[in-house]
Design goal:
4 copies of one chain form a homotetramer.
Chain A lengths: L1 E6 L7 H16 L2 E5 L4 H5 L2 E3 L2 H4 L23 H12 L3 E6 L1 H12 L4 E5 L15 H22 L2 E6 L6 H10 L3 E3 L7 H13 L5 E5 L26 H14 L3 E5 L11 H20 L4 E6 L2 E6 L12 H8 L5
Parallel strand pairs in A: 1-2, 1-4, 4-5, 5-10, 6-8, 6-9, 7-8
Antiparallel strand pairs in A: 2-3, 10-11
Helix pairs in contact in A: 1-10, 6-7, 8-9
Chain lengths: ~350, ~350, ~350, ~350
């Protein structure tokens, strides 16, 4: 068989580990051939390819990003997109595709598979907000980077008797904030799933100062206060229409400074959470996803996506990669709340 | 309630995270009091205690080791040991114990619980060889440390066209070798579960040199060759009867040097795998174990041990912490083997 | 002798290493006694003390921040400040002070020493902008943290064909940007010492895209474009009068996006550069400063400050810690420029 | 000009940074061409080359090892070696060589330069034992790796009330032990420069246990006890004539266990000290050495070697790279000794 591989959406530590595992096992165990498509669905759409064999995947396991490049191109939003993809796959002699990506990438994969293209999917979301799998790769790396930043900020907070607000990734789901906050010993953790009361946050912060231990507040970029508490939306975009750095984090630091009478500072971790070398957890998970994906292709088991259940890698319908978000359940948040008050 | 806490067996990153979670929730949510027992079962046996409250657990989350100290003391091997423990617990006014430890510590916990002492257990094994739980804390940290060492060794191996043998922990189960080897891109991984053929290993190594990519061999300290291939046992102990550093690793490097004609070197990671700050995964898992443990104590649900199943923390019978080892199944080893040949 | 110790100004990895060395050698070699003053000059001003002996400095070497706390209090700006300090020192029986801090802290130290208070200084500036010494501690840690962030951002930049602008500390001197940029393989480095031409920067960035290697631009927070190129000052402060996160970095990313036609993103490293555990270089330098400082006190050699010259720790007049800034010389910038064009 | 580049001797973090700087500046500033010679002096001796241009040095700055490979081949020990080198250089059209290496490599460089080959040298020794320069690259990385290992071992030592002996690199000079020991808060540091009294070491260790703070002993691989204290030489080699892992470290741990009555364990850091990504200090130093080296070539200033003096990179005679070892002076050891007793 000749198999195409592509990566779509935001980059995520572990993408290269998936690519490598697919190719290494595909060649060694099954004798398949591979072709890389560049920049997500843009690759098969525009016929942009890259050689992909044992030599090309040598040494990429510890590297972040993706050697294939990525984009957010959606062929279903382009006139004749599907036909172009089919034509390019035919021209390349590609029998099947391994598509590695998030909700959007897998949504395209699902539809293409329904339209007769042989696709196997590997889920990728640094936010860990996918119902079908216990964890996605990239998440563990992001949490560790955020935790290490929080570890560093503790000593600054203590030495200066300051509040430090750490804004982490997570527009719709607070998994990174929850895990990094738990791991980093945060005083308060604020998630998109649960509007927060800024007065209550200020009370927690004050309480922490009273025990002479300066507070760290971890906040998801998508968290927001109770209705009526924030009236700064107009300032949240700059003259280019970009969201300003330090949206909710900076707003919160200002509020806390005012309400607690203690200096507050914000750190927005941003892109350093998603780049660079993956943790062992993510390298192993991504590798196992890749191995299972090439097995699925070899078995002709298309329309499937890889998932982690307990310690097993299983295959689930591709459509499961595009459904409802896995948000942080109340029980997990309450578990963490016990640390807020002291 | 007044609750005693102790840690037994080899140290493991995450022990302090458990202690902290137990105390923080115990005080904040339930108003319990705590007393620390020093050095595992030696503490209640000899009445060695340590104050344990919110102040004592402040700042210990990121610290490796255990603030309570540890030992391998077994009260059932000491005359009147159980009676002494009961007397000391009574004297301290202790209603229940949280025992954090491995097979030996939990074995004692099980027996004491049967004899009427209220005990809740938290499992700890850096080797991840416990059937009752998907993962134990400390394992992820050990794997990451080993992986980082392997990452470093790659460039030396390549620059000098040398084989590098990395000996990692794991006397009876090869989980650390398997995961660190997968994550580090090892050429060959050797486990206690499966005697290896040193000729086959030499063939793998030679193949890797042929593609101009120097090989890393990851070997569990408990791995051993096929019967008859090793005749060095007499040299494995030094004049003090201690096992020499570089047992199987050094032997293997010598064999590979001879059989492949390429220089080989050994690195024995040893104790650096078990010390120091835990990863985020281990801090979160240990914290969640601690939270569930104090809930179990509060519920009067004694004789139970905490376990991870998928993403849930559940309570299982204490006895499950002391049963058969969870060794690496053949399927997981075969999964990894696909990388050996190329 | 009875010796007071204080730390002033912004926190900096290595402060605790200085305190520890002063106390360890002071007690072990000379039999002196110590008292800690809290929060910089606020401590002696208001008589805020903290016990300081061997026990208190145990285990603090690897910890960031300062166990004594810090502040920017200046006793010369407070009515009767000097008299209060003298009175409090007398009351505490303090014969001499070790003051660890930056320009402001050492400025106070210099004046107090002239007024008859026995002071020895240890210089501290994370920005490395002190003429009297080859390096200051904290700088190496900050550079490593920034470099690791840049390492991580490379893979994101490449995978997404994006420019990444990394804003690092340095209001008046560009040492962190220069060293982190050199170490991180930046495409362009922009410093406060040299107004930049945004058109030239865009040309460099475009050139890097042409060789299919996405650019990283490292910019000091205090860097600024040629006169007339930036007209956004009014937006640089928020409603609280705080400088917005992403000042120059965000502005530059927007400019580059517009001028190059390639997406650009900003990361502002902020406080993570100054917290957390020090590197070996900083621990050794801080320790050696501390050892030399207590020797100076013991010798009665007051009015002096510690400095690194080559591999030696020497004593120079305290006043040298408060003079002209050591900015990046043109020759060092030109050295780096050779990497910009390709 | 057409310039050859080679790396010889043991690998060292920063070699690739030198190669990259030489090539980047050579091409961009001077328009020179380059050819890489493989595996040290073996390359020009046997005519083994590798293309070396901007593309080849892309992305190698953060990588350990050397993309050119290394060996210990000495052409002066081979019949007609010099003539072969001259012939191969002529055939390749090479006008000058940049030789990056330690004492042996630079010794060959010196002799060849005297024989009319145009050579510029860049010194490399992870041991930092070169008189001509304040520091060599690779040393800072090795010290940080050793320090991080020591940091990790502290918690194990404390939790188990054990002595931990850490054996670090340094056969003839104790710089790594001195700096890693100072940075890691070692209880005792033992160097090749100063035979140690094992009784005295045991006294220090016992003293540390008395203050309830478990001791870390850092020992250079080349350290040795006072005459007569060690009678184990015959056991130091295995059946292949290799030096056993854990030579002095393991011996010392056994002695300390016996003399102090406390368990002791050894960790031999070995090759992980010399592989992997360089620290910022080493990347900057190596880059600056490379920039100065290509300037020297361009200037026709042959027979020189690069050196760090304070914050300047200067050129010194090549012969300075091969003279007397820079060992740890007594004053630096005494500086550290103040921490041993408590």
């Amino acid at each position: 068989m000749r198999i195409g591989v592509l990566t779509g959406g935001g980059d995520c530590p572990g993408l290269n580990a998936v690519i490598r595992a697919v190719v290494r096992k595909g060649v060694a165990a099954y004798g398949h051939e591979f072709v890389g498509f560049r920049d997500g669905w843009k690759g098969p759409l525009e016929g942009l390819t890259k050689p992909l064999g044992i030599a090309e995947v040598r040494g990429i396991l510890p590297r972040g990003g993706t050697i294939l490049g990525s984009s957010r191109t959606n062929p279903f939003k382009i006139d004749g997109g599907v036909e172009k993809i089919k034509a390019n796959l035919a021209e390349q002699g590609v029998d099947a595709l391994v598509a590695i990506g998030g909700e959007d990438t897998l949504g395209v994969a699902t539809k293409l598979n329904d339209l007769g293209v042989n696709v196997v999917g590997v889920p990728k979301t640094i936010d860990n907000d996918l119902n079908a799998t216990d964890f996605t790769f990239g998440f563990d790396t992001a949490v560790n980077i955020a935790m290490e930043a929080i570890d560093r900020l503790h000593t600054t907070a203590e030495s200066h008797h300051r509040t430090l607000v750490v804004e982490v990734m997570g527009r719709h789901a607070g998994w990174i904030a929850l895990h990094a906050g738990l791991a980093g010993g945060a005083n308060v953790i604020l998630l998109p799933e649960r509007p927060f009361d800024v007065e209550q946050v200020a009370t927690y912060v004050t309480k922490r100062f009273q025990v002479e231990y300066a507070p760290i507040v971890v906040v998801s970029e998508g968290a927001h206060p109770l209705e009526g508490q924030m009236a700064l939306q107009s300032q949240e975009k700059d003259s280019f229409g970009h969201v300003r750095l330090g949206g909710i984090g900076q707003w919160l630091a200002e509020q806390l400074e005012e309400k607690t009478g203690k200096e507050a500072r914000t750190v927005v971790l941003g892109h350093i959470q998603r780049g660079g070398t993956p943790t062992a957890f993510d390298r192993v998970l991504a590798t196992r996803f890749g191995l299972q994906a090439i097995d699925a292709v070899h078995d002709g088991d298309f329309g499937k996506m890889m998932a982690l259940r307990g310690t097993d890698i299983v295959r689930v319908p591709l459509i499961d990669g595009t459904g409802e978000l896995k948000t942080v359940p109340l029980s997990r948040y309450e578990e963490a709340e016990v640390f807020f008050g002291s």
